[in-house]
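// run 5 | inverse folding | seed 20
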């Protein structure tokens, strides 16, 4: 019974560690933090996003450059399925990505929804992404409709990098 309990505990901890890498990936994109974004991949990781296929270093540079001109981004994780086979895991991660873009002088909301199909590997006790493919299931591009938020001085608006409240732990600590 103890060996089965140990195996189940290791599986639970492994899935949590992988989930934290998934969250770091999304945060690295949204906050335009290339160091955090890159940290979730093994050095020899491969990616296939259709419009980009290659190694992790070049992918992170590609993604960060693609997101930089946007006014804001928010990547949300939906259901996550992780199956483990020892030190290898396979995942299907649902996502919705929001991008505030400017198109023809107008603010637009671009939504892309799909799934990541991943392979994770545990090396020296650390889980990271070894392979990631992005499958797009749907997208839409709509006129922005939240201008009322900017007109309200009480609104707390998100920002990128250090300007975002989530990056100001000392400030949050004192609130």
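// decoded
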């Amino acid at each position: 019974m103890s060996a089965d309990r140990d195996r189940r505990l290791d599986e639970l901890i492994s899935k949590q560690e992988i989930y934290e890498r998934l969250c770091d990936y999304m945060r690295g994109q949204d906050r335009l933090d290339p160091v955090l974004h890159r940290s979730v991949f093994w050095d020899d990781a491969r990616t296939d996003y259709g419009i980009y296929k290659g190694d992790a270093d070049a992918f992170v540079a590609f993604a960060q450059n693609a997101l930089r001109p946007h006014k804001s981004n928010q990547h949300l994780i939906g259901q996550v399925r992780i199956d483990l086979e020892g030190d290898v895991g396979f995942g299907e991660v649902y996502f919705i990505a929001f991008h505030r873009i400017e198109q023809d002088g107008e603010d637009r909301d671009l939504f892309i929804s799909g799934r990541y199909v991943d392979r994770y590997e545990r090396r020296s006790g650390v889980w990271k992404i070894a392979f990631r493919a992005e499958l797009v299931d749907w997208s839409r591009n709509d006129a922005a409709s939240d201008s009322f938020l900017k007109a309200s001085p009480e609104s707390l608006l998100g920002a990128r990098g250090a300007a975002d409240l989530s990056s100001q732990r000392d400030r949050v600590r004192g609130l």
